[in-house]
Amino acid sequence: MAYVAEPIHQSLKARGVDCGKLLTVRYDEFADGEFKAFIPESIRNTHVYFIHSFYPDINKGIWELLQVNDALRRADADSVSNVLPYFANARQDRKKPREPITAALLANLLAFQGVRRLFALDLHADQIQGFFPGPFDNLFGEKIFLPYFLAKHPEAKDIVAIAADVGGGKRVRAFARNAAEAIGLPEPIPFGIIDKDRVSANEVEGMAYGTGPSVEGKHVWISEDMIDTGGTALKAGKMLFDKGAATVTLMATHPIFSAKLDKVTGISAAEDKFAQSGMKVIVTETLPRDPLYYERNKTWLTHLPIDMLFADAIHQSTLVRGSVSGVSKARKTK
Fold first, then answer.
1. Most exposed of 166, 264, 307, 322 (fewest Cβ within 10 Å)?
2. Which residues, 6+ apart, have CB-to-CB distance to 185 below 8 Å?
3. 233-274 pLDDT, tens per residue?
4. Overall CATH class of domain 142-287
5. Which residue numbers delimit the Ribose-phosphate pyrophosphokinase N-terminal domain (predicted)?
6. Alpha-carbon distance 155 to 233, whole Å?
């Protein structure tokens, strides 16, 4: 996560925050796959913000996080805060028959380790914040996407905002209202919600645009918190094009793109499907990617930085009477 940590560190220093050196955790691995984390310098009596990504192996990433937190506490850090732009296992957030609530399990493990504070971006469900007994700051990707949208559509003419499922309704309503407010419109941008029938993880059986205005001839902007296999977004995009949308743009905070070879179509990955879909996709940099990755996919994929949003949040958390919630206070859903 150096691509995020380094600009955050520079921004905090520029604001006069005494943030010391930026350290990089080292991982040593044994022949059998066992690994251990190592902190390269003393951090005794300091307040540590560990910026971590679970990508590309979520299960290994969780174990790395737990090891580093343990090492920091044993090295006598005054406090440890975890900056986790993409919070792992966030889709496992509620009780289902004979299934774990893994988002709660992870939050409980971090609390047990004595972690003081958590930061994340666009949690899959707001209630995950309640799984952690300390401050858990859920920043809003809208703060990153909205300036980009306004640069493309300064008057928001012929725009319809769409949530790809009912769960994203709150997010798209906030976006529609705040975009209109930023432009000075008296009413929210028209918005709608797609209904879908999910039969299992990563498998959507049916989809219908049941609630919202006509999209014929409109520039449609879909709001999602993540792209995993991309199945939902791709089906939504095709349906909207079929209904006459002029353009379809997808805003997704977490660009996982995990789809493998499709044995039916022969298309090799989620990226290939999006490249052929006619959609434009805007994502944030919550997952580390090689710069060449974005260069290869630049015809349809745009990435936006997250470092300044997290720098603002971390800075506010260091201030007496600082307001981290104020960093994302633009969201209005009523």
1. 264
2. 156
3. 999 999 999 999 999 999 999 999 886 655 555 445 788 889
4. alpha beta
5. 21-112
6. 26
